[in-house]
Design a protein that fits this description.
Shape: globular
Family: Belongs to the HMG-CoA lyase family.
Distance between the termini: 32 Å
Helix content: 40-55%
Largest sheet: 8 strands, parallel, barrel
Number of domains: 1
Structural class: alpha/beta
GO molecular function, one term: lyase activity
InterPro entries: Aldolase_TIM, HMGL, PYR_CT
Keywords: Lyase, Metal-binding
CATH topology: TIM Barrel
Strand content: 15-25%
CATH superfamily: Aldolase class I
Organism: Algoriphagus confluentis
Length: 283
């Protein structure tokens, strides 16, 4: 079974011009009609850090969730954000960005890796009380541009720490688009075999021409959870100025279907979502 996570939050967050709240909600409502496993719809973070996401609570109130099968995921960067997100019963997952790069952890959440790990533990405790799940994104999971230490062994050390905290879902994140198919397969093979109790996801950034081979590499390594964004919009605004977009969902879908996976998506609603994406992102 393949889980597709659609990430309008990631697609929108770096856009400097504020997208009207009603437009955000209309777009996410259309995505809910498609049948994705999960929608990464917003974030509860400082509006000074990510101004585009300052209306996440208002967007949530405008979502039509009565018939939706998709689960909702919100990104948080600290305990306060987690507490804000957990106020809403509609949210199923809290996503936390934990970096294997000390430089990027400071840049992204203004905290050290040690502090971030303590935050992961605190959020995990809150999630257990509220009956929610935490998804930890290991950012810079395939390398970084800062010269910080990186190796597959380092990734395994981080996953071991998360396993001890009872984290059930870890998404390996190629924050700046440097992952090769060989490295993707290698990392997922090692992690899925060493930690069978953890669901591993792939949050990859890619040029359009490389989407298929990266999906196939992830499948070969044992990954069954993939993040994407329609038309490949987005990228982390905290990473670097030269952003590589998200994996284009409409390119991942045929790549996965060619591998024999039935994704159970409503293709007509997907086409409507594509049309709306062009409007939302002025493409």
């Amino acid at each position: 079974m393949i889980k597709l996570v659609e990430c309008p939050r990631d697609a929108m967050q770096g856009i400097p011009d504020f997208i009207d709240t009603a437009i955000k909600a209309a777009y996410i409502n259309q995505l809910l009609e498609v049948g994705f496993d999960t929608i990464d719809f917003g974030s509860f973070v400082s509006p000074k850090a990510i101004p585009q996401m300052r209306d996440t609570a208002e967007v949530l109130e405008m979502l039509d969730l009565h018939k939706a099968q998709s689960k909702l995921l919100a990104i948080v960067a600290n305990v306060r954000g987690a507490e804000d997100a957990l106020y809403f019963q509609e949210i199923d997952f809290l996503g936390f960005p934990l970096s294997v790069s000390e430089t990027f952890q400071q840049r992204n959440t203004n905290a050290s890796i040690a502090d971030a790990l303590r935050t992961v533990e605190a959020i995990q405790n809150l999630c257990e009380v509220k009956g929610k799940k935490q998804v930890v994104y290991l950012s810079m999971g395939f390398g970084n541009p800062y010269g910080d230490p990186y190796s597959p062994e380092l990734i395994a050390e981080f996953v071991e720490k998360l396993s001890q905290l009872q984290i059930e879902t870890v998404s390996l994140s190629d924050t700046i688009g440097v992952a090769t198919p060989e490295l993707i397969t290698q990392l997922f093979e090692v992690q899925t075999q060493a930690f069978p109790q953890i669901e591993f996801g792939a949050h990859l950034h890619s040029r359009p021409e490389s989407v298929g081979e990266k999906v196939w590499a992830g499948i070969k390594g044992g990954c069954r959870r993939f993040d994407g964004a329609l038309m490949g919009f987005g990228g982390c605004p905290m990473a670097k100025d030269d952003l590589v977009g998200n994996m284009a969902t409409e390119l991942m879908i045929p790549a996965l279907e060619q591998e024999g996976y039935d994704l159970g998506l409503n293709k007509s609603e997907l086409q409507e979502a594509m049309k709306l994406a062009k409007f939302v992102f002025n493409s």
